[in-house]
Write a structure and sequence with these properties.
The complex is a heterodimer of chains A (154) and B (758). Chain A is α+β, with helices and mostly antiparallel strands and 154 residues long. Helices cover 33% and strands 14% of the residues of chain A. In chain A, helix 2 crosses helix 5. With 758 residues, chain B is α+β, with helices and mostly antiparallel strands. The mean pLDDT of chain B is 96.
């Protein structure tokens, strides 16, 4: 039995110790916004924030996440109101197939939380663990820069 | 240029809010009550006869609900895109032809049990000699992969127009070359997955696809049930790129398991399975001769292509004719000989598109640069001299109806500051240009066209019903935007029901670059039809003639007197109150010659129209390490007219990145015989945000006479040409002519070394 705190809510779960955080989020909590793309920690589609830091949830055992704040894409918006990053991804056309989008947005959130006005190079570095096959990244980088501006009131 | 209310505007895509919130459901996210999990047993041999399969121990394992094998469960049906290329028994009965081919499958109450059950299946094989390279496979005495295909030739396309030998003899300059590009993976972000629910009414499936009707028909035949009993549902799709176009063995397996277990079955492929066992990109070898006059006119081309298609034909035979067709619509050529062979090898089957950019277009574009160099011309000048123009008819009979090619070259060159840079950059830096055109709306048999309906709800909102499918390009949003424009409604008042064979009329799918041209055109016609009916009703309400009315922002009004207006919603209600149902209907077919055939008669109007584009890349090459760094990519694409410029830019970005960085710099499969050695993202390097420079898209609008609002496809000319632009830029930087893609440090150093030793 473990206790997980996901998107501000507490869950008590009976799970086998070899279950990854990704599996628990998707299968036990039905939070399917976190995607599985490679099973070996290389694509970044399963990125979630653990105490604000991006982790690949396919490489984290659920038991390791006990006692930590877990944020998934479902916990980012406030009700119907989108987070500025989500807003910018929509308005800047940064979403195509959308499979990498949740992980990409969370990686960007972690960046902006620690560095409110990143350079283009810093943005590219922060999302370099999240693979996108559709966009060529240009509009994603633009959207993150725009969100940074809007978050800092610019 | 005409001004529209919505078309041509940067409208946020209709699917993007769901996607940024994590609500968009992809196949692996779905579940049904009582659902089982499927797993597949695969061949460890590249070529072997299946002698026996013993599944008895697997069937006895607690939690296993069904086991299927080809010998016991497959119907006698082979898939192939043409009647004469039907070679693929999707669950094999007698032979396996590549490492990883499906042999048997299990459905169990969880994945662990399914995996354990696979270990309990015993297969007895008789290994057969295998062959892995097309040139080896064509030799006499090579192992035959399909007994009825001598020389392992899947298809041979032969074109001989004009007088090639005479023109070569008369040419002032003849250049000869040999180019290669190995296989690649598409690496769709979403690994393949399928959810199937087979019951007494038929089968419901959810899976990534590039055309639901393209799935349903062959699947029904493979399962031995009527097509109407296969319902392919709409689901979000994580990329296709040509690799999701057809029925997969996974589809037959999941449906067969569900049929046997009488429960829903979900089969989710691993990344490795996705890269090996779902259609990926061919290997390509081109031999060519090109002849020129002194003034730079390209007069003759003689080409031979060997295409490594793997163990089955797949959709690939179509791609054998595409290269010369798209080349001669780029640069008109009176004298043209083309021999294209798609060859079987004992490797995973390959799909079709967009392949030829890598070793065919690259060969042509590098030879244009070579000719320019020998004739003392600028590479831009030789391309402008030979560039296609509107109204031209090609040697094999295709008429060009809209062509912004010249404008693409001029605008890209201007943005990239070509004239200041070409040949003038410091040592190790270079700039290169390449061009391309792409067929839009080509023959797809009885599934080549698209139809759409529009109905209205009681609140006056419209629902569009179209077969259009979205793999990530923005096709759904495109259909909504077109309908909203035509009906004069805001985008949020139009809903779309799509990509569902149970509801939607036939549609060619995201295939043949026709989603906007054909499906979008059908949606526009349906909206225009609905509008005519609305105007009939509204004309009585507004006491005017229907032809005096127009619609915008949800209102129908009298032209020239916008105060005489009423909400569209009131017109819909008024119609219903008078027992009138407004129902729009539209359809479109590609405008092509009906006599043409891809392999046996590849002449005539093969596509409705063609897009055009020019790619320019600037690179920096480290002479010590051979590493090529792409500094800048400029891409000008003639999309006819941009329905949504933001979406077209996104497509151009993706095309430049895919062609330039994926195909040009990083990606290729490594083989040990028939064993793929890098079917994962650790060993198969894909571009990250740090590998792709800023991409500068330029949209050119040639206003196609057939396309809805003048639109054609949105980016593939760049997919065809950016890699070649990088090859040409490497030449500008180092003076070497690359002959094999991708331009890895090893290959660049090898070519540098070869030049040094000459």
């Amino acid at each position: 039995m473990i206790r997980l705190r996901v998107n501000g809510e507490d869950y008590e779960l009976l799970i086998p110790p070899n279950k990854t955080l990704l599996e628990v989020l998707r299968e036990d909590l039905a939070l399917t916004g976190t995607k599985e793309g490679c099973e070996d920690g290389t694509c970044g589609a399963c990125t979630v924030l653990l105490d604000g830091k991006p982790v690949r949830s396919c490489l984290v055992l659920a038991v390791e996440a006990e006692g930590k704040e877990i944020l998934t894409i479902e916990g980012l918006s406030k009700g119907e109101e989108l987070h500025p990053l989500q807003e910018a991804f929509v308005n800047y056309g940064a979403v195509q197939c959308g499979f990498c989008t949740p992980g990409m947005i969370l990686a960007a959130k972690s960046l902006l939380d620690s560095n409110p006005s990143p350079s283009e190079e810093e943005i590219r570095k922060a999302i370099s663990g999240n693979l996108c096959r559709c966009t060529g990244y240009t509009k994603i980088v633009e959207a993150i820069a725009a969100a940074a501006q809007s978050l800092s009131g610019g | 240029m005409p001004e529209y209310a919505l078309v041509g505007k940067r409208v946020p895509r209709t699917d993007s809010v769901e996607k940024v919130r994590g609500e968009a459901k992809f196949t692996a996210d779905l579940g049904l009550p009582g659902m089982l999990y499927g797993k597949v047993l695969r061949s460890p041999y590249p070529h072997a006869r299946i002698l026996s399969i013993d599944t008895s121990r697997a069937e006895k394992l607690l939690g296993v609900k069904a086991v299927v094998t080809g010998q016991r469960d497959a119907k006698p049906y082979k898939w192939g895109v043409f009647p004469y290329t039907q070679d693929y028994q999707l669950l094999p009965i007698d032979k396996v032809r590549y490492i990883g081919q499906e042999v048997a499958a299990v459905a169990a109450i969880d994945e662990d049990i399914a995996r354990e059950a696979l270990d309990l299946i015993q297969v007895e094989y008789e290994p057969l000699p295998a062959v892995f390279e097309p040139e080896e496979a064509m030799k006499e005495g090579a192992p035959l992969i399909h007994e009825d295909k001598p020389g392992n030739i899947c298809v041979h396309v032969k074109v001989d127009e004009g007088e090639v030998d005479k023109a070569l003899a008369e040419a002032d300059l003849v250049l000869e070359g040999h180019f290669e590009a190995p296989e690649q993976n598409y690496c769709q972000a979403e690994p393949y997955a399928i959810l199937a629910n087979f019951d007494s009414t038929g089968v419901d499936i959810w899976c990534p696809n590039a055309g639901p009707h393209m799935k349903a028909r062959p699947l029904s035949r493979a399962l031995g049930i009527p097509t109407s009993q296969v319902r392919v549902h709409r689901v979000y799709i994580g990329g296709a790129f040509g690799g999701r176009s057809e029925i997969q063995a996974a589809d037959v397996i999941a449906c067969s398991l569900s049929r046997k277990a009488q429960r829903p079955v979900k089969l989710v492929y691993t990344r490795e399975e996705n890269e090996n066992c779902i259609r990926q990109r061919v290997g390509w070898i081109t031999y060519l001769k090109m002849g020129f006059r002194k003034d730079g006119t390209w007069t003759v081309g003689d080409f031979k292509c060997l295409i490594d298609g793997g163990a089955y034909a797949s959709t690939g035979p179509i791609a054998v004719s595409v290269p010369y067709m798209e080349m001669e619509t780029t640069y008109p050529l009176k004298n043209l000989r083309y021999d294209g062979y798609r060859v079987y090898t004992n490797k995973p089957p390959r799909g079709m598109h967009p392949e030829q950019n890598r070793a065919f277009h690259m060969a042509v574009e590098l030879h244009l640069d070579m000719a320019a160099e020998k004739l003392g011309m600028d590479p831009m000048e030789i391309r402008l001299k030979n560039a296609m123009t509107s109204g031209f008819v090609t040697a094999t009979g295709a008429r060009i109806t809209s062509c912004g090619f010249n404008e693409c070259i001029q605008k890209a060159a201007e943005r990239a500051r070509w004239k200041e840079k070409r040949g003038k950059l410091p040592p190790g830096r270079g700039i290169g240009m390449a061009c391309g055109s792409v067929m839009c709306g080509f023959p797809m048999g009885i599934r080549g066209g698209s139809a759409a309906f529009i109905k209205f709800n009681e609140d006056g909102d419209a629902t569009v019903i179209s077969g259009v499918v979205d793999n990530g390009q923005g096709n759904e949003s495109m259909a909504v935007q077109i309908a909203a424009e035509e009906l004069g409604l805001p985008v949020d008042k139009v809903r779309l029901v799509s990509a569902d064979t149970g509801i939607c009329p036939l549609d060619q799918g995201a295939y043949s670059q026709a989603a906007t041209l054909i499906s979008g055109g059908a949606v526009r016609e349906a909206a225009a039809d609905a509008k005519r009916q609305l105007f009939e009703v509204a004309s009585r309400m507004l006491e005017t003639k229907p032809e005096d009315l127009d619609a915008r922002e949800g209102n129908i009004y009298v032209k020239g007197d916008p105060k005489k207006s009423m909400p569209l919603r009131r017109v819909v209600i008024n119609a219903l109150a008078n027992n009138i149902t407004i129902m729009g209907r539209g359809y479109r077919w590609p405008k092509i010659d009906n006599e043409r055939e891809w392999v046996t008669n590849p002449r005539g109007q093969f596509a409705t129209t063609y897009s055009y584009g020019c790619s320019i890349a600037e690179v920096e090459v480290d002479r010590e390490t051979g590493r090529v760094k792409v500094l800048r990519m400029v891409a000008a694409h003639d999309c006819g007219y941009p329905i949504n410029p933001m979406a077209v830019e996104g497509q151009i970005h993706g095309a430049a990145s895919s062609s330039g960085i994926r195909c040009g710099i990083l990606e290729h499969i490594l083989w040990d015989g028939g064993q793929n050695l890098n079917a994962n993202f650790l060993d198969y390097w894909v571009p990250t945000a740090l590998d792709v420079p800023n991409i500068e898209p330029i949209i050119v609008a040639s206003n196609d006479p057939f396309g809805p609002f003048g639109a054609k496809e949105g980016s593939l000319s760049i997919y065809m040409s950016m890699q070649a632009a990088i090859a040409c830029a490497i030449h500008d930087a180092l003076g070497i002519w690359p002959t094999e893609a991708p331009f890895t440090p090893e290959r660049v150093l090898k070519t540098l070394g070869e030049r040094g030793s000459h």
